[in-house]
Hints:
It is elongated, with a radius of gyration of 23 Å. The chain is an alpha+beta fold and 259 residues long. It starts with a strand and ends in a 16-residue tail after the last helix. It folds into two domains: 126 residues, Sandwich (Tumour Suppressor Smad4), CATH 2.60.200; 100 residues, no CATH class. α1 packs across α3 and α3 packs across α4. It contains five helices and twelve strands.
Amino acid sequence: MGGTRVNARKYEHLRGGVTDPVPGSLFALALSQGITVPPAPGRELRFGRNRPQVDLCIGEDDLRVSRQTGVISHRDGGWQVANTGRLPIRLPGDQWLFPEHDPLPLVFGYTPMFVRGTRGREHVMEVYVIGPDGACPPALFDAVTQPPKRYWLTPDEKLVLVVLGQRYFAQEAFAQPLGRKQVAEEMTKLQPGEDWNEKKIDRTIAAVRLRLHQDGVPGMLKEELVEPIGNMLNHNLVQVLMSNSTLVPSDLKLLDGWD
Length: 259
């Protein structure tokens, strides 16, 4: 490996960067171990369950975790991670790295990696790659918090979308959007004087998706997805609007008599 073990207790996590960095070096942290590896061609960091034979141990007491889950190596001037185990490694943005995939380059900065074990357990390894200038990100304790980018919705659009995504706001397991027929029926109950048919529901939702697509949000158009699409377009829409707080659970109060 050619790395140096560091006191894991010194670093509660790596999200805020590391101290005394060497440009291009790799820091990795698990539950009870920490390692720093300077950049050099051929350097490797092996991680997995078998503590005596890996450089960083994760999932030590979990037989679902491979004895060697993966390898982070320095190639072509940067670090890359390869999956050498049986289970996929989950990365940010719901990206999955499988054993048959090519190694994935690691970007400068912070990257958490997750391996799912038995009974829903998830084992995490944090990685931080130091940038070429060797600098840590500055502390921003007193800076003004940047608000999320919320999207403007008409009152009708907001009500339709709350009806559409009510299962998500209620935090139901494996939530899915309501079907357009169900949305039309509930909208008719909420606004009995309006003609809320399925086509009008489709037009209302499609108009919001188009605005988000024009603003650069991916996954809003059918052409961007692979068949079968099912509810994926509306699922993506609800997820985006929840992630930036355009829609929040308290919006359920708009549904009069919602239980």
